[in-house]
Amino acid sequence: MLLRKLHFSKIVIHLIFIALSLACIVPLLLVVSISFTGEQSLMLNGYHFWPQEFSTAAYKYVFSGASSILNAYGVTIFVTVVGTLLHLLITSMLSYSLTRPEVTHRKALTFFVYLPVLFNGGLVPQYILLTRILHLKDTIWVLIIVYLVSTVNVLIMKNFFRTIPDSLIESARIDGSGEIRTFFKIALPLSKPSLATIGLFVAIAYWNDWMTASLYIESPKLRPLQYLLQSLMNNIGYLQANAQASQSMESALGMLPSEGARMATCVLAIGPIILLYPLLQKYFEKGLTIGAVKE
Amino acid sequence: MKAITKPSNHGKSYRALRSARRQAPFYFMMAPGLIFITILFYIPMAGVIIAFKDYNPRDGIFGSPWMDPLFKNFEFFFKSEAARTVTFNTLFYNLLEAITVTLCALALAILLSEVKNKVVSATYKGSILLPTFLSWIVIQYILFSMLSVDRGIVNNVITGNGGEAVYWYSEPSYWRIIMPIAYLWKNVGYYSVLYVAAIAGINPDYYEAAQLDGASNWQRIKHITLPLLKPTIIVLSLLWVGKLFNGGLGDWNGFYTLPNDSGALYPATDVIDTLVFRSLKKLNDYGMASAVGLYQSVVGFFLVLISNYIIKKKDPDSALF
Amino acid sequence: MKKFLVLLLSVTMLSALLAGCGQKKDAGSTNDPAADPAKEEMTELNFYMMNSPVNDFDRVMKKANEIIGKEINAKLNLILVDSSTYAEKMNLMINSGDDWDLSFTANWGGINFFENAAKGAYADLTDLIPKYAPQTYARIPEGLWEGVKVDGKIYALVNYQQWGTAKREGFKFRSDLVEETGFDWKSLKGKPTIEVLEKMGPFLGDSLAKHKDMIGFETSSLESSSLYAGNPLLWNMEAVGDTSIPGWINLDQPDKVINQFETEEFAKYTEIMRDWFEKGYVRKDGATVKDTSPDRKAAKFVAEKTGSWPDSIDHPGNSDASNMSMTKSAGNAPAVTVSTTRTMIPAGAASTAAIAINSESKHIEKALQLVELLNTNDELYKLISLGEEGVDYKYDENGKFTMIEGKYNFNFNEWQIGQSYSPNFNRANYDKNKDGEIQKETQKIVLEADKTAEISPVTGFVFDPTPVKTQVANCASVTSEIIPALSSGSIDPAKALPEFLKRLKTAGVDDIIKEKQAQYDAWKANK
Fold it and tell me: Greatest CA span in chain B, whole angstroms?
């Protein structure tokens, strides 16, 4: 009786997750399907989960329109990897210290960290700061620096560090370990799941960011992937809204394979970052149990 | 580092020196973060005074003349007839989002921790995380391909079964449901995984002890998991309280993108930020935009202070500061 | 501890190293001259424009800079900014005092030519243009320079295009359906728009009765695409200042600023659209469709508004007039075109596409020389706008211009970098055959008309919205919500129109009209 009940609840759990997973995956399949459908068929038959008329024209268009796509992947990957690692280092050091009772002003410092969540000066001061004071315009560092610290992540991570038992830190101290060493040898390894979680979201933010590039990057070589793809597609909407400005705009509109290409850019942009999750998967599990550290 | 240069807070006693020496490594670790926060967030924060200025580039942020009257930049929002509607919408969607996302994410996280098979659990997590990877523009494409009147999948199904095509983009009332679902769909994976990480951080000794005591699943959740997740829930809630007057709890792009510029939907989909963005798009007026931003921040600030105060009274450990 | 220090140190070093690289590269590109260093130092000019990424950009720009270096000892650094953020980026650069030399400017899309000129962001070119860019100045109708003036000073170089600036609005109809239904489209010539729409109704009905899958007339969720709100000339009106800010004049009574939505024409127009909506002549979801290009490319429209002229009566064979829009290359929708309005150079014509120079630039004269060179050196202009012949494009055996796939492609944005007009028509990609000849003929008619067309009475007037910006912002949010619905017939004007007007009043539309009138009167008195 008990066994059957247990079994039943397990089935329900799995059913819920299968349904949810489908709800998340199926819409993406739609994007893939549209990207492989011929433009004419899209206009006449509408959207379907399976291409009514298979075509790779959209991908051809995207690749021919942006020959620098490989370079853009390179920029994006560099920015994502370096940015995420630096972000994790800076954020974890800050948030760990904010949990330590030795730091007497930690409440005030937390407030200091929190306040920017609410108040920000807007785009003009940021532009002045990054271009005229820090001189980062048109360097790869501007793409990294904008997401280097997130006060929200500091606060979230602070909570993770709080769950580390004080006794562990204390015993390390008795063993003669310095505070910084304790942090890297004990606190960090214990927080692998949270580092992986925060890291994943930071990586997505870096990966998806194209606004920074469009405001601060000027040389074609430093353009990240998302910028390239967005820009390719943005022209269509903009031309449409301002077609009266020029007749050559109008003829341009007639030639752009819009919808399929739009979806193809989505697929190209999302593709690689989706692989990040399986890569990080092992860190999401409890890396080291607390018992293991004790010994 | 600060501590080394000015240990004078407690006099020059031996204890203070020792405390400073103990704190030094922590300040060393905090330094990069604090420096970047100062540079990236505090320096530009001076820009909030643009809200009170008649800004022009020649004189710069500080040199531009003050507005006359000082609060003139605020007039636009408070005098606008839509102010009440969008404020209502903002609060309505934010509360709905905060509640649904938190409850669903918690439920999913707890259920996920019940799935013991690693591969299966990873697959579930990976799938529900997918929408988090998508930008609002991509979500808009997806939504449009489902809801488009003549080519959308939903209407294809409806008309295929002899029904009448539904004009999704013309009827505001549908969007009172579509918008929260979209936000839930995009965000729930993120927060579930966050909570899963928090659960993973719980000392397994607790569970072992509970098992020895013969606690049921539900008891375990109620007495161990939830109390230990409380600090995380409180931090997230406090962060959201500060953003209560910002559309989409700060991420308002969905409200701008998903309705696809359909004016008919504005009464149901406009939040404060989208209204401001649309109204000022042509004027390019930094003063008026930052005035509204400042208003949202100040309200959020007081809400946070009040909530933090209440939490401090009840449970000092969970308070933010 | 040690490990951490090593890590920190290496991160700092790496950053410094890479930052150094970045700077060095910057420095490298500043003095990377192709020409001989013996001459005076080469000036580098930064020119911002909006464009998507361009293939093989470096190759073509290198060639272009060989010409520019030889002719004026300068190097053009063309910076392509994504079109969706161009206005924002330029306004940020201006408002933060960033460096730039030249930029594309316009009165639309938030680029705010007039506001920026009035703020002093752009250099005063009044005396410099005749000196450093004489041909640019002399080639085009003189009246156009009035259109880029603020307080009597010229602030931009007009990008005069091969298709002229005089506007004449009209309508296009599917020629196969015109024949099928016997619609007397020629009789619409020169008629007021209300009359045209009333006559067009039955034709749409007849055509749709035979072709059920077609759509009568195009409607859109964009305010600027409204047949009324975006096209003053069609209603014998003209916007005073920005088209989207309330306050137009009737061209027959050019002294009085009116609220364009309080007119009889607008009321009548909304009624007709409602009627069409109920009869199914327009899309049921017309007010919510932003992107109408799928319908256009699928050749679904029976009739549409057009700005291209001369029409099929005055100049049969004009290829722009004989295809529905966006179908020219597919050729699946033959059309006839009739123009219905007067021919006028609108106040905003000159500032539709222009080049401004930064008032803080150290190289204002050089920048002007560059524009002059772009406008007069056909080889250079064609190189940038089309690429190299034989490599990037070719003429096929019939003399038809074709682009070579995957090669250089300026995304049809050449109108931002100079005048595509030249007296001998050798700057554009006309086919080298009969079609090309017809096109040239057409352009000649248009350009001839530019010289004689009437000039809008508002030309040269600049509206400063500062005193009423609260009202402007609030009206903008009302119009962007309601105009698409009224323009597509999806709401009943009997109820919605009075409500809309009331909301505009609450938002302060009368203050705007009053302010516009006052500024307009003052400007006229000074003229």
Answer: 87
A2 found inside a domain: no
* Subunits with 3+ C-beta pairs closer than 8 A to B: A, C
Domain count within chain B: 1
H/E stretch holding C302? strand C301-306
Contact of C329 with chain A, judged by CB distance below 8 Å, is answered with yes
Helix (H) or strand (E) holding A48, with range, is none
Q: Is residue A196 part of a domain?
A: yes
- The Cα A167–Cα A163 span in angstroms is 11
Question: Chain B residues with CB inside 8 Å of A162's CB?
Answer: 231
Confirm whether pTM is higher than 0.90.
Answer: no
* CA C526/CA C460 separation, integer angstroms: 12
Which residue range(s) make up the domain with B100? 51-318
> Which pairs with CB-CB distance under 8 Å and at least 24 residues apart come from B84-91?
B85/B267, B85/B270, B86/B270, B86/B271, B86/B272, B86/B274, B86/B275, B87/B245, B87/B272, B89/B268, B89/B269, B89/B270, B89/B271, B90/B244, B90/B245, B90/B246, B90/B247, B90/B271, B90/B272, B91/B244, B91/B245
Q: Calculate helix-pair angle for A106-118, B226-242, nearest 10 degrees.
A: 50
In the predicted model, is pLDDT for residue C141 greater than 90? no
When computed from its CA atoms, the radius of gyration of chain C, rounded to whole angstroms, is 26
* Set of chain B residues whose Cβ sits within 8 Å of the Cβ of A182: none
Do C97 and B60 count as a contact with CB atoms less than 8 A apart? yes
Q: What is the pLDDT of residues A21-49, one digit of tens each?
A: 999 999 989 989 988 988 778 877 888 88
Of the residues C26, C44, C85, the best mutation for testing chain A's interface (the one with the most A CB atoms within 10 Å of its CB) is C85
Q: How many helices (H) and strands (E) does chain C have?
A: 17, 18
Q: Which CATH number is A82's domain given?
A: 1.10.3720.10
3-state secondary structure (DSSP) of residue C389? strand
Distance CA A104, CA C79 (A): 51
Whether B93 is in a domain gets the answer: yes
Low-confidence ranges of chain B (pLDDT < 70): 1-12
Considering chain A, what is the average pLDDT of its residues?
83
Helix (H) / strand (E) containing C344: strand C344-345
Contact B170 C481 (CB under 8 A): no
Q: Which residues contact B309 (CB under 8 A, 6 or more apart)?
A: none
Residue percentage of chain A with pLDDT more than 90: 32
Alpha-helix residue ranges (DSSP H) falling in C96-188? 113-119, 128-132, 134-138, 143-146, 175-181
- Contact yes or no for B262 and C483 at CB 8 A: no
Residues 372-431, chain C, touching A (beta carbon < 8 A): 405-406, 409, 411-412, 414-415, 420
| Residues in C touching A178 (Cβ below 8 Å) | 1
**Model pLDDT, residue A281:** 77
A90 vs B19, B36, B128: nearest CB: B36
**The token pair that represents C75 in the structure block:** 């190097």
Q: What is the pLDDT of residue C260?
A: 96
Contacts of B117 (CB under 8 A, 6+ apart): none
Domain that holds residue A168: 29-289
Average pLDDT over every residue of A77-92 = 95
